[in-house]
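Q: Start with the shorter request: fold the first protein.
A: Done. Sequence, then structure:
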Amino acid sequence: MEKKDVKIINQGLEDEMEVWGYRPCPWKMVLVAVGAVCTGGLLFLVLYWLPEWGVRLTCTRTPFIRESQTLLLRSTVCYFTHHSTKYYWNDLIQCIPVFEHFGPLACEKAGKNANGFQSGFNRRLFFEVNEIAVKVPSVFKLLIKEVLNPFYIFQLFSVILWSIEQYYYYAAAIVFMSVISIATSLYTVKKQYIMLHDMVATHSVVRVSVCRGTLDVEEAMSTELVPGDVIVIPSNGMIMPCDAVLIHGNCIVNESMLTVSRTQINLPSSGEDGAGVYSIEEHKRHTLFCGTHIIQTRFYTGELVKAVVVRTGFSTEKGQLVRSILYPKPTDFKLYRDAYLFLLCLVGVAGIGFIYTIVLSIINQVPAKTIVVESLDIITITVPPALPAAMTAGIVYAQRRLKRVGIFCISPQRINICGQLNLICFDKTGTLTEDGLDLWGIQRVENGSFSPPEDDPANETLVRSSFVSCMATCHSLTKLEGELSGDPMDLKMFNATGWILEEPTEEETALHNPIMPTVVRPPKQVLPEVNQEVNLLSYEIGIVRQFPFSSALQRMSVVVRKLGEKRMDAYLKGAPEVVASLCAEDTIPESFTETLEFYTRQGFRVIALAHRQLEAKLSWHKVQNLNRDLIETNMEFLGLIIMQNKLKEETSGVLKDLRHANIRTVMVTGDNMLTAISVARDCGMITPHERVIVADATPPKDIQPATINWHYTENHATSKDNCVEQQEQGYHFAMSGRSFAVITEHFPDLVQKLALHSTIFARMAPDQKTQLVEVLQSVDYTVGMCGDGANDCGALKRAHSGISLSELEASVASPFTSSTANISCVPNLIREGRAALITSFCVFKFMALYSIIQYLSVTLLYSILSNLGDFQFLFIDVAIILIIAFTMSLNPAWKVLVAQRPPSSLISGPLLFSVLTQILTCLAFQVLAFLWVRGQNWYEKWTPLSDACNVSSANLTHGPNITSHVDHKNIRNYENTTLFYVSSFQYLAVAIIFSKGKPFRQPSYKNCKLHLCIVNCIVCVPHEWRITVVIIVLVNAAVSFLLESANERWCTAFLSWLFCRKGKTPRVRYMQVAQELQEDPDWPPKPATLQKNIFNQACQLITNSYLQ
């Protein structure tokens, strides 16, 4: 296909797609119809399973997507729907953008003309109904979809074939199991759809108040809303049916439906943000998201709290979350890809048997009907119908065991992937450390230098200070049902002051033009008794304007006015480095850097405060429209708040276990760099003798190129001895989010090298956490992510296995959720993942050997025109195979994590060698038994009158009323009986041999159910020939066991020697990079500054231009 005809949709996003245009072709459609008739409808089934082939076989390519008839659905508007999202063809730009918004929305303009549009009809042509409609399919539709699965079609083909051969009992057993399997699958899928439907139905359809071009407000159903509508938020709150940006008033919301935090957030009106075009990311703090519960509203006199609808239906934040559940990203795991290749190999073996059966039958002049039936039967024997169900059993058992230890899974297929995890990223706060912060103390600035640390900000002497006033006002707290609610850190800071927060009532708000401010004041007991009321009034502070905390800016600020004063004050708090950059230099103590480093090295979280007295000319109205950059400048540095974040009890032990298991651990946090390094040392992520190299990168500025400054957190001598010592010691890189962004953009050649040894990532934004996971995956790490905050959701979803420590609704973005809020769930999950992975390998090998063993038995019997009987097939497949396949998956996980990792591929030397040696062993002993029994002096060739005990009845006389059962199928013969018993014991032998135990699963002797099944399957051997059969079986089992033991011990080393793998380049990328770094004498870098080589890039650019 030519790339010029391809259109890209959602470029750069997770659901990026390539689109080609096709038009129906009549002559192709006729040919397909003829082919379907000739194949009895089988071609239609193939095209149903492979829809891309269906399009190519019935349509022709068109270079103009607009002319593609499959996309022409309404008048001149071309669109198609994919995964509940509409994509429209745009003639102007000749592409298919996602149509989410009704043009660019300027919030300021929307605020001034907040009466909405007169009609939403034209817009509804594009956006249609505002509803997250999770349609629950009917049972009949689900049944048809399930039955048309290739596995069940193969089952149907097999049952018809067995019925023709009169294997009614066996066919009935398979039908019964298939019905049970289909019914279970339908029940599970139907239940999941109903649960998801009920989850979103609570807010899908509600009544709302809408402004449509007049001053009047009309009632409408939420399904009629389209982007651009202005809705009124009622004072008693509501559950949002869409995404909308607030343009009038304030709201207190609970976003627990979307984030893993139940913190109530105060959403102010847009202010200076309204001057620009609305952006979901930039104006997230001013957006009411679908599904969030609005608890309170605060409004102007005569005005209503209004919001402009920006996204509806599946385009909303809630809708995208539901879409991710309805249409999950396919799991690309090597085990499943290898399983299909292995099945293709079995199909190839079946093809050989198919040809062998036809040739042998023609030579023996077998009737044509028998040739067709028996040749097709060999295919059903070679490809085991019960393989998918047997492999799923191990995952189901692992899921149940995880549930018992408090780990819940919404993507069972990822359990196997957990067994391959070799790198885990951890969030810090709430994950490695306690969720809450305790106030350790404060350190104020007096006369340009730090005063001694103080532990009680509520001290009477500090009530009048700007420092305590900043602590009491610079927050986003609110009162809900009489109790303070908000960010936990803000609560700790405010409660430490002992002050009181009072919010205006609805009646007070309605009496004033502006919104009545929130007031804070010190308690009466901290003031002197003389003139206490006067003093109390003079310390009431009203919060006039609030600039909410921004993770991008790493700060928040407020504008306040003290009662009785004309001037307003601004208070600021945030990351110390950021706050210091906004303060006048003469107000920052000279020891600022040393003091900050002293606290962060000890693992404390440090917050800086600042103050500024605003100009007297600033009125309340001017402040409401002022840009925060004009407020947050030239401030006075007030001091530091030192918060203590304790490690969780389980953290150090879990990280030690992971380290011993050679599983790399990485910390990804939004906290300060030195604090993160200190916590990493305390928890054992970095050991005392290992060095930390900080990569401090700065972006290019003017003519200065981008640079990286390498420096060590400890004193580092540059002598040769120390350099050699450093090379021998372990080392870790640490970098901030800013440095990470600069390095990925300007130093891409260093990204993979740093990814190999970077352990600390500080000040990381949510999207950077996701980007980091992608970088680690690009060097072939199997990455796990463990976090508890809303800012971890992207990384939790992108990682191979995300583990959320929160049980709220947003944990649906993570495949795994732990009910215990600590990282002890991580080793449990990895252990169960390894056990499930090994179980999958064991079951797959067992089922493959079962089909090959039965294939060998039937092939040998075909040589004498015999076959296994109906009850023999039934006994083998049901009494032996199914029961053992399901019980051998019951081995629990091994109790400790080991350094050894389970294999990741079915197409690997040791595994293939194991299967091949067992196949040859079974073949050898079956041929031995087959030939040996024919050489016995008592052997009697089969006749139709042979009875079940292989004693010829030809010479027996029967009375007139006695009839003899004639065996026309040649089943009651010595060869059949011998091969049946030998093969039955071979099934049991390989089941025991392949049922691996330590170091990933509990030993097989602890699996009582498996042993019980094996004992029940051991039946009596024939009276004649019994000792010989027993000897054959025992020798077979011993040889199989010895070969498997030898394979485990020496196969890997032998194959490496045989194929000279020792000196070859490793397959995984991170091992290749490690090998390169070992040979690099300049790595790790010494303390120095690295600049981006612009000259070489410029020369390369000029050369490329010249060549073009």
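Q: Next, the second protein, separately.
A: Sequence, then structure:
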Amino acid sequence: MIFVRHYAQMMLSSSNKVATACMPTSNLCVHRRSFMSGMLCPSSLRPFPTTTAVLWQQQDRGYRSSLCASAAASRLPSVSSHLSDSETAHWTEILTKITKPQLSAMKNIVNPRTPLGLDIEYLRGVNRKVPLHDYFLKLKKAHPTSIILVQIGSFYEASGIDALVLAQFVNLNLTGQKNSFIPKAGFPLDQLPLHIFTLNQEGFSVVVATEAGKAAGGKTFNRKVDFVSTPARPRYFEPALADADGVSLLPPRPVPPMLGIASSKHGLTLYTMHRDTMLASCMGGLTKEGLFCKMHAVGYATPVLLHDSIHRDTQLRAEIVGFIQRTASVQLALTAVFTGQDADQGFLNEVKQHMFAEELQEGRDVAIKMVPVRDDGRPRPPYLSTIMQLGLGKHPMGIPSLLDALGGATMPALSRHWMHSLLLMPPAHEHALLLQQAVAHYCSCDQARPLLAVNLTPNKIVETIESRRIKIEFFRQLTELIVPVINYLGSQAYRPVVEALAKFCLEESGLGVHAHNQHLGSVEGLHTALQAVLQEVQAVTVNPEDVGTSVDKSVDGLAPSSKVSSKDQLISISKENLKRLREANEGFRLEVKADQMREVVDMVERTYLEFEEKSLQLLGFLYDEKEKKGKMATGKDQPYVSYDRMDRVSAVMSPGELPPAMDGQQLIRATDRKRSADKKMGTIADSCATSNLQAASDAYLAATELAATKAKELLIGLCANLSPQLSSLIMASQLAVVMEALSVHAELKRAHGWCLPELLPPQEQATIPAQATHHAPRSSLQGSSSSSNQSGSTTSSSSMVLKDLRPYYLEPTDCAVTNDVELGNKVWLLTGANMAGKSTVLRSIAAASLLGLCGLMVPAKHARIPAFDSVMLRNFSGDSPVEGKSSFRLEMEDTRCADQESTALSLVLADELGKGTEVDAGTAVCAALATRLAQRGSTTVFATHLHKLVDLLKPLAEEGKMEYMRMGLQQNPQGKLLPTWRVERGVCFESLAFNVAEDSGMDPELVHMMRHFYGRIQAQASIPGREVPDSSTSSGISCQDSSDMGMDSCRTHLLSGSSPGSVQGDTDQEDEKGEQQKQQQHTGNAAQLHDKAVHILRETVGSVCSPEVASAEREECSSSSSSSSSSSSERPLPPVWHVGPNEQVAAPHARNVSVVYIVRYAGGQLHCGQTSDLRQRLRKHRSKQARKPWAGPGAAMDYVMAPADKLRVLEAAATNKICEAGIPLVSIHDRIIKSFPTSNE
């Protein structure tokens, strides 16, 4: 509080006011705006905690008047220029997010109405200086809503509110003096990538200014803006930072688009801007709920741009801002304003200011194409309630995630994000069929697939190539991405996949709107384009696999620790240090090929050899001189050639006194790269050189700098050559993401027994036999329809059929009750007891429908999904105090949405509607909505405890527009009712509320009181016995239990939302301590030994397995198996499948398939093993482990299928025979069974 006294002293000029100005500061409570009305004040002052909050009003009114007059007469300079109202609101919102206690004092000092939040006039009055304040202020005026980082020496620093942001969101400590009253923060230069990544992820835009050489006079530095990084257009850094385990600290992440919202008499308009394709889309005529669904589906970067038409509607603006704050993926959900009578052009202008500020400052033209969104029959995005009930929202509230159930947890981050976006924005029907075609082929193809690298986002590709801020690591990542995609495009086995997904990605990415990109939708066109890109890259850049091993150049080349035995040994040690020098300065050899700049490379080679020759010549001379004088008795006096990793220079070191000359040349001290003689740190002070040696060193270093510059120019030129191929690179990136996501999904869910549904075309109303609804190519995936209630019946093709439907989060090993669902254009009234599974059934139906609309597999044995235009799942939710809405108000908004948005093609699933108010009113709400939806023809399920609905909706049942369904109950031997979790015909009036209360551990006496009061209520109501409505009409439901396990186990697994078990993988784990077999004498190369071992494996399996078993195994995958020959007509050899070093196991064989295999490591070593989880076992062999030095990437595998109960026998038998044939194996631990049974035993 001492600064209050300083400020008062500065303001008061009359001597009779000095005493009052120096009054104890505890008696002052300074308002952040002014000391009193009409008085000029430091805007940065805010209320401070005091023990006695005595206001200025407690002082004499005459004194206050004279104080005002004195301040006005002094004509103090005004505070720094104020920000606009919108900019002030921006920083005010940010200050509300500064919540760390240690920042509270500094938070009270800053003022969001001034740039940087600092009042410079006040700071001058209290003798506080802000380093580079004028430069900070200049940048802040140009970028008023961005974080400003300025390089000062070896640190980046921020001041004012920006410093508080770094302390809050990046976890930095404030710097400077304790009582400086100037928030400051900074960090070392090498931490910039990580902090930029964090700030962008939190929703901040960052401006980075760097030093650009010293100004005239040499005392200060010139500075310039290096780049601007925003959430919608982040800056990428290469190489990416990694932790000690090699895990990237900056994982690849998709960049969300920038959104804009405008309002008109036709409804709301949503604008979307993607940086990679330079396309802005415009979708008009949206309702508020439709807008929120679209925003949640596409995602968005902050700030969200709101047209002034939104700001004029205060209530609408508040609802949009509230939605953004609830659903944004970052803590800071900011908005900005764009204006203009033409909202389209206003959005484009504002986007250019936010995303292309650097281009505009440089005077470059930014061309953005505005594309109206077509109504292509795409289903509407799921509403927020549906998203939350399927575990797809920001806070899943304990609900199992549908994304994880699809295999999202095992997908790369980019593939997981794409799958999530697909569920939130289901594709058009024809695009869903393309995805389904790809998934079906993954499920049926048994050929090994190329191993994809999902490492580059389209945004990163575009930004890196167009910015020309290039590093060789980017081209290596680009090569890793392109090569497997080209292999996919050239694979005949997976051609149906790439044909379908190339069309899908071309349309979904927006590239298809440009006529010159149409060729990318064909396999041949995309293959040709990517081959051209690969040739361009490989012609310039160096393949790191072609470069030999290197020495560790991260340490200094120090003197030998002991006396060397000879001059030759000393020279050998010195050459190692010279090698470190060479690798540190000749990094261009790892970037571009030498033939691209042969003249410069020859110059580097020539100058290095000259430098090496003169260095070793001087080293030999010094060695001989010290040897003559007897100074080589200990190692500390011997000369050597050093390497300094900081300056990347080498010098001949000679501790002690130097000889006067060598061959007539005077010996001098060597100089470092900065030409500062005789360094006083490290070992350079003991250096020795001649003028010729120093000249050779300078020439070599100059040649390496020239080569590095030339290499950079070549990489920039390569970027220019790749610019016309950006569309093909975006396609490759999209294809890799989608193919990896679908392959993982198909592999996992096929093993779990899921099926691909039949997708009905839109507006189909014909009548077809139910048993003929299977597609022949997918019959093996979907199963057969043999339920008695469907046999011989007919059903509308618009009906949804789900056979053996189970909760999506339960695996086959879990005990789950499955249900058969046939649901047409009518209403189901689903009643049932508490904990009977009503919500689980609704959630399962919603999940299966959404997955089918997305072209994915569903948790059933057979499914038929109509072309729903929307899936609405509504469950009971609490209130929203932030919005001032009760739980019933939220229910009514959901009811309004279901009424206004649903059509005859909609699926509406309502759970506990009307629960937020009293029983009669809630019953009326449900009855009214059910009647409206039944008349409309929507496919609807109402799950409810409101039993009066049974009588109210009886007319709908009589008209055939509604069916009564219930969750079944049964009595245990003790006479207690328990749920069966089966859907069946009829009505259930039991609630089992008191049973649930007892099971939850409630006090028995309290439960007894509940039963007592319930009996009194029933007696007062005097309700006559209810007559269950006749539901003899077709129910469309049959129930089946998928397991014989007990009811308690079933109940635990079904309703807990957890998955207690998983598919059993390996039947036996490899011994971690297997000894490596001794090398044996053998003839032939490694490939011949490998082929011989595989042949022995086939013979072993064929001899042990019976012909019937072997034949059955071959028939299972005979459709596309690799060719194999039989050694005997009586006992044919089983087929062999091969997975190359850059391939992945085919989905049908990845899990739950018993095999015996031969692994060939990259070094040629062989290993024999067995497993029932082939993909996991191959991943283990390809992982680098210290205890298995031969393992690592590049391992290939050949495997033969075999019965699970004979895997151990076959592994031991094959290992024995391979060893007896003289073929070395890396492990013989499993060679434990000397004799084994044959097929005759």
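Q: Describe the second briefly.
A: The first strand starts at residue 147 and ends at 152. Residues 691-722 form the longest helix (32 residues).
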